[in-house]
Each structure stands twice: as C-alpha cells, then as structure tokens.
Amino acid sequence: SQQGEEDPQALSIQEGENATMNCSYKTSINNLQWYRQNSGRGLVHLILIRSNEREKHSGRLRVTLDTSKKSSSLLITASRAADTASYFCATDAGNNNDMRFGAGTRLTVKP
Amino acid sequence: GAGVSQSPRYKVAKRGQDVALRCDPISGHVSLFWYQQALGQGPEFLTYFQNEAQLDKSGLPSDRFFAERPEGSVSTLKIQRTQQEDSAVYLCASSLLGPADEQYFGPGTRLTVT
Q: Which terminus of chain B has fewer CB atoms gathered within 10 Å of its CB, N or C?
C-alpha cells in the first residue's frame, strides 16, 4: 500500500512559472524524500528532509515539512521545459524497512 | 562511477513462464530494494536486503515472487508462473547504508506478460 499522496495529480504551467506540489502521509516518519521520474527513465533523488527539519533548499527546489499536518510541499521556482516529469514523495514509514511512494504529480512545463 | 544497472531492460513472457530479473547495485552499497511500478502509479515496495540478508519481504505479492542476494551484491528477482497482472516495471534501488538514506534507482525492467 502507498503511504504518501501527492496533490495535484497533474499540473501544467508555462516556462518561468513556479510549480508547487503537495504530499500528505499517514504515519509518523523519520524522513521524507522527493524523487523525479522522466518518461521511461528511473527515479532520481531530489532532496531529503528529516522529521526535525522544517524547510530545505537545493538550487531551484524548496521543500517544506509540517509533521503536525503530516504534509510536505515541493516548490520548483523558475520552471523549465526540462522539469517536465513525474514527481513522487516517499516516506520511510517509521520503523519499517521500506520507502513508501505516493502516486505522483505529473508536471508539464510548456516552453 | 557506475550507477545501478538492471537487465534485461525489457522482457516479454508468456503466461505461465518463469522470469528472472537481475540488479547490479552500486558497489559498496549495503542496502538493496526491489519495487514494482504499474503504469501511472508510484513504485510499490517489494523487498529489502541488507547485504545478503533479506530483512523485509512484506511487499512480495505472492509466493510466486522470490528474491535473493546471495553474496551481498547482485540480486535476482524471480517470478514463477507469470500472470498478466505481473506486467509492470520492476525497479531496483540501492543505498549506501539503510532504508532512510538516499536511494539510487536503476532504469528498471519492463515486464510484459502475454
């Protein structure tokens, strides 16, 4: 079963705009990770945020984590056509040994 | 350095056939994971190895699925008597230490059962 749920399921924006994707999860976590998957390719790790962190930046990416609401957001600023991909959040689900992925947000950035 | 590799990249099997999918993790990575990804969905956890020990196989959908990592490096996911519902992309990932670390994914094996 999947732990995280991304919202929205699909997002279409113009190049240069910002894109915000949200993730909600159900159980307590140690960390939350965001991954990107281009069409027909494997997943690429973007950023990891630990449960005691509230915000993290990496280049044009900004991730927030609100453990009280069991939610996280991924912001991509100044989007590019190359950002077109599916974005997944994944949580370690506490004491389990696995990462649980959501169904993903499909982002389309139009040039 | 080399990333995670998987073979074959594509596999077509007739229903009832057995298949074996191979994963070569990044050298030195302790943890190895297998996931199943259906079209339009996120990866679903199948099983996890720490070195050669299979610590979690709670995600394997049936006893037709079997995974091994006998020497703590290369892993094989075997599916016996394949069914159409087994059609999916099977992803392998490895991480340096444990499940909470960044996972590096291979390109996946697309299995089609006809």
A: N
pLDDT attached to residue A42: 79
- Please give the torsion angle defined by the CA atoms of residues B82, B42, A107 and A20, in that order, rounded to the nearest 10 degrees: 180
Which value, to the nearest 10 degrees, does the dihedral of the CA atoms of residues B51, B55, B59, B65 take?
Answer: 70
Is the pLDDT at A2 greater than 60? The verdict is: no
Residue with tokens 């229903």: B15
State the Cα–Cα distance between residues A9 and B43, nearest whole angstrom.
15
Query: Minimal Cα–Cα distance from A18 to chain B, Å?
Result: 23
For residue A43, give the chain B residue with the closest CA.
B105
Distance CA B42, CA B3 (A): 21
Which DSSP symbol is given to B103?
A: P
Cβ-defined contact of A99 to B33 (cutoff 8 Å): yes
Mean pLDDT value of segment A52-67 = 96
pLDDT tens for A21-58 read 999 998 888 889 999 998 767 799 999 999 999 999 99
Q: Under a CB-based contact definition with an 8 Å cutoff, are residues A87 and A38 in contact?
A: no
The amino acid sitting at B8 is P
End-to-end, the C-alpha distance of chain B in Å comes to 37
Residues in chain B: 114
- In three-state secondary structure terms, A57 is strand
